Recover the amino acids of this structure.
């Protein structure tokens, strides 16, 4: 017996299609039904590769007694946060207000007449454990409260709604000073400096801002350059990276970067590739960085690229170990028992593996071994051969012979396909514009630094797919399921895709073939639509969703805080500065200034929440335009010049090699490559 979710396209929603709970997707009909029947809404939000979402689906949401009570007393709605990040953002903020913390699965209870949340939590077990109440008891208590405590309910709702509305209406300021920028860089450098005592996340928006700060001279209690390099080493050497087959896992559960939470998300990999390429261009040239980038691109080509050119969204943390297993096991696809290693490798290979990686008979993860490197030098031929043997044991084929590895699109495919090696995790094959854009930007930057044609081709193909397929009746769409665009684009889709197009435009200036491109023209068209439907002329900044698609939202947010991905408004403001330089249209610069002023109170009060806004402020204060010929631009683009944009100029003043403009004023023409580089470097700091 299935419920309504069987008709949806989302892999996450369809995972709940056989639950006994009478799930609804978020829709006008669902909201109207809850209101007409005076049933509080149980809103549950998650995503397909979320481990604890999967656990709760198999436990509480599959329990007949819980389902019977839920169906009789609530209207249950399931939302895929990857489809509707605007809904997720509102109710995650509400949960954090109510409990002081958040996470997924996100489970909140809403009053049906106005959709205001009045209770929430994350994972609820079936029976009381882990210091959490049993889910049926929670449901019974919530329903009693809703029916009896009307006055308390109203008071609580008013407080939550007021707080949500106030958080959406930020106080603007005109203070966009160097002091504010320095304080933001210093605070966010502190976030990635020093030791950690819990799980270790990539936190790339913080690391990128700290790396920018290394070029500026101001007193700091941190060694930003060392902190940025260490973050790169932790990523490229740690167990968070799949040393056998490439690609980065979501995070590690420990402070030592050893044992990962095993899902692989496209958005992490795009950001990390860009960051490691930036580190390399900033002269932190560790061989482990180049290997991690190359391996991630190989994983992307082999397992995450559709035949149409776009990139899949994610791979699960769990996988089945046998076709008859009832439940998947976390990390089983990726880890190695010591006995396996002894069987697969020669004694000399195993000895060398133990010297370079954290390998021991007792293992480091539930009796198995997660590979973590001890050093960052280039691996020996012996080690690469050993890792290739592990690859073959996992995939059933040598890495050089396996160009593509078909995805398991659901549990049924995972268990019934004839895999030559281990049964792989399920891959969520939907296309998300924002996440594809992060990967395109990473590939474009890596191409500019390493000049690998594969990087350029992958980025081009993905961008062209989006341009050719994601507009329906003149409107940009966020998702694509099996060739069908779905869900109108949100601010992060616009902002990150415009950034990707600008990054492609810049990288194209160093393409050896010199083929013409229209990436800038495409970026301008997408920006025009972004401004028309999501720009807040009154407040500044961009709303999360378009004016004509926000009727079902409790409040209209303009997201400025960074999470696992950079904030949409931070990216959008940096884009506006870049567009102003490339087009000489100062309306873009006006919008950038208004937006920074709109969010300046948040930047002053909580700088650790919004590193990407400080990246945008850096662009605003230090933006540099470089006009030069192809040879000079190719040389400059490989270097770390984080507030520069490049323009190919074929008609330079006689005897000159380039022109450098600092914001709205230009320096004298440079007459030698050395003088040009000196002007560019000086412009990065205005020293």
């Amino acid at each position: 017996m299935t419920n309504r979710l069987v008709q949806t396209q989302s892999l996450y929603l369809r995972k709940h299609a056989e639950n006994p709970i009478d799930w609804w997707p978020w829709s006008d009909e669902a909201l109207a039904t809850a209101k007409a029947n005076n049933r509080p809404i149980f809103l549950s939000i998650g995503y397909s590769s979320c481990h604890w979402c999967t656990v709760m689906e198999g436990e509480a949401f599959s329990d007949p007694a819980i389902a019977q009570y839920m169906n009789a007393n609530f209207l249950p709605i399931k939302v895929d946060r990857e489809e509707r990040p605007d809904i997720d953002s509102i109710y995650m903020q509400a949960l954090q207000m109510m409990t002081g913390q958040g996470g997924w699965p996100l489970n909140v209870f809403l009053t049906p007449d106005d959709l205001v949340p009045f209770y929430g939590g994350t994972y609820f077990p079936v029976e009381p454990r882990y210091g959490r109440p049993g889910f049926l008891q929670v449901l019974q208590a919530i329903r009693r409260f809703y029916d009896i405590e009307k006055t308390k309910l109203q008071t609580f709702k008013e407080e939550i709604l007021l707080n949500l509305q106030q958080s959406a209406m930020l106080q603007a300021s005109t203070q966009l000073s160097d002091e504010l920028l320095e304080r933001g860089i210093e605070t966010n450098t502190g976030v990635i400096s020093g030791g950690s005592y819990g799980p270790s996340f990539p936190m790339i928006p913080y690391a990128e801002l700290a790396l920018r700060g290394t070029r500026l001279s101001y007193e700091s209690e941190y060694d930003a350059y060392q902190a940025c390099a260490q973050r790169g080493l932790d990523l490229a050497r740690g167990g968070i990276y799949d040393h056998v087959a490439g690609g980065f896992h979501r995070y590690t559960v420990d402070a030592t970067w050893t044992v990962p939470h095993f899902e692989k998300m496209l958005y992490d990999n795009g950001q990390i590739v860009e960051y490691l390429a930036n580190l390399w261009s900033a002269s932190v040239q560790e061989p482990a960085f180049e290997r991690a980038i190359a391996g991630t691109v190989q994983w992307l080509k082999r397992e995450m690229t559709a035949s149409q050119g776009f990139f899949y969204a994610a791979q699960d943390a769990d996988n089945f170990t046998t076709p008859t297993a009832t439940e998947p096991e976390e990390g089983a696809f990726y880890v190695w028992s010591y006995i396996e290693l002894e069987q697969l490798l020669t004694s000399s290979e195993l000895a060398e593996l133990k010297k370079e990686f954290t390998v021991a008979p007792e293992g480091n993860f539930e009796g198995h071994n997660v590979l973590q490197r001890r050093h960052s030098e280039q691996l020996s031929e012996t080690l690469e051969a050993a890792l290739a043997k592990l690859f073959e044991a996992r995939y059933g084929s040598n890495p050089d012979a396996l160009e593509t590895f078909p995805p398991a699109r659901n549990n049924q495919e995972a268990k019934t396909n004839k895999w030559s090696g281990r049964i792989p995790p399920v891959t969520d094959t939907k296309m998300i514009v924002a996440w594809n854009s992060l990967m395109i930007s990473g590939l474009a930057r890596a191409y500019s630094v390493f000049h690998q044609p594969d990087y350029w081709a992958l980025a081009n193909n993905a961008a062209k797919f989006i341009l050719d397929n994601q507009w329906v009746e003149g409107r940009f769409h966020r998702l694509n399921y099996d060739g069908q665009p779905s869900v109108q684009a949100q601010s992060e889709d616009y902002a990150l895709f415009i950034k990707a197009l600008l990054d492609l435009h810049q990288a194209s200036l160093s393409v050896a073939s010199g083929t013409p491109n229209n990436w800038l023209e495409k970026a301008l068209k997408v920006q025009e639509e972004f401004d028309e439907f999501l720009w807040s002329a009154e407040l500044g900044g961009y709303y999360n969703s378009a004016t004509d698609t926000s009727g079902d939202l409790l409040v209209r947010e303009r997201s400025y805080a960074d999470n696992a991905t950079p904030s949409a408004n931070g990216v959008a403001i940096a884009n506006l500065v870049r567009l102003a330089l490339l087009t000489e249209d100062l309306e873009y610069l006006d919008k950038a200034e208004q937006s920074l002023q709109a969010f300046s109170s948040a930047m002053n009060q909580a700088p650790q929440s919004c590193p990407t806004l400080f990246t945008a402020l850096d662009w605003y204060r230090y933006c540099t335009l470089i006009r030069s010929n192809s040879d000079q631009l190719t040389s400059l683009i490989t270097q770390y010049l984080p507030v520069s944009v490049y323009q190919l100029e074929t008609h330079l003043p006689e005897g000159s090699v380039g022109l450098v403009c600092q914001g709205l004023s230009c320096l004298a023409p440079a007459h030698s490559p050395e003088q040009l580089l000196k002007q560019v470097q000086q412009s990065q700091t205005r020293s």
